[in-house]
Amino acid sequence: MDSILKVQNVTKHFGGLVAVNNVSLDIAKGEILGLIGPNGAGKTTLTNLISGIHWVNEGKIIFEDKDITLLPTHKRCRLGIARTFQIARPLKNMTVVENVMVGGLFGEKRTLRQARMEAEEICSRIGLEKLDTHFDKITVLDIKKIELARAMATNPRLIFLDEVMSGLNMDETRDMINTVRKLRDSGVTVCIIEHVMSVIRELTERVIVLDRGEIIAEGPYSEVSMQHNVISAYLGEDA
Ligand SMILES: Nc1ncnc2c1ncn2[C@@H]1O[C@H](COP(=O)(O)OP(=O)(O)OP(=O)(O)O)[C@@H](O)[C@H]1O
Ligand SMILES: [Mg+2]
């Protein structure tokens, strides 16, 4: 596999709780990988470790052959790792386009004018309209797209999408699925965290299943979703 990211034996504790336990995984260049598992499995924590929001207690993270384990978030961002947040963080006193510009200004040195032009281009690419609208006028889909657009504005090569479909109706979900596909087709590797399994089935080539901080299965969704330990993890029974 031609990897863009390697996670090697990564562990994260929060006090006595082991949120991520000795996890190793590779993400292949150009794939859409699904990261799934029940609530509290450690999916968001793993994303936080890779994007540098939390530090690992043990293990290594390698991005494009560079050891990034000890790099701060903004440096990982400049290297090309982006993520959306499970709980969207819109800046409510700013317009749609200004929210997206924040990503471009965080990622690299740009003038406001450049950042605005790039933000407008990304918004048009992903069908985010009403650029100068304030937050009281927009839909859940707009908020999710702002999250995505802001991450894209950092010009990533690898992006983590943490539950970008939650709260969307069927038409909006369809729109978001197409948007994610286009993003990958433009050359960005995608890791999508999602509870909506129809989305995972449709979008991903491969999934990794986490449960209680450990990887319990890996493979195409069609195979993994039939495994007893995966079904048990979701139903909360002992395998
Ligand atoms: N900052 C933190 N401090 C303490 N415990 C945390 C922290 N972040 C996560 N945890 C705990 O780590 C475990 C994994 O949480 P995490 O949010 O990574 O799960 P998840 O797989 O993203 O779940 P969900 O599907 O509900 O979003 C949970 O038990 C959670 O309570
Ligand atoms: Mg989560």
In short:
This protein has 239 residues and is of the alpha/beta class. Helix content is 38%, strand content 26%. Helix 3 (96-107) crosses helix 4.
Using brief descriptors, characterize the structure shown:
239 residues; alpha/beta; Rossmann fold; 2 domains; six-stranded mixed sheet; four-stranded antiparallel sheet; 10 strands; binds adenosine-5'-triphosphate; binds magnesium ion
How would you explain this protein's 3D organization?
- The protein is of the alpha/beta class and 239 residues long.
- It has 2 domains: 1-80 and 157-239, 3-Layer(aba) Sandwich (Rossmann fold); 86-155, no CATH class.
- The chain contains 9 helices and 10 strands.
- It has helices at residues 43-51, 73-79, 96-107, 112-125, 140-152, 170-185, 197-203, 221-224, 228-235, and strands at residues 3-14, 17-28, 32-36, 58-63, 66-67, 81-83, 158-162, 189-193, 206-211, 214-219.
- It has a 6-stranded mixed β-sheet with strand order 6-7-8-3-9-10, with helices on both faces. A 4-stranded antiparallel β-sheet has the order 2-1-4-5, covered by helices on one side.
- Helix 3 (96-107) packs across helix 4 (112-125) and helix 3 (96-107) packs parallel to helix 5 (140-152).
- It is globular, with a radius of gyration of 18 Å.
- The model has no long low-confidence stretch (mean pLDDT 92).
- The structure holds adenosine-5'-triphosphate and magnesium ion (MG).
- The site of magnesium ion has 3 residues, from helix 1.
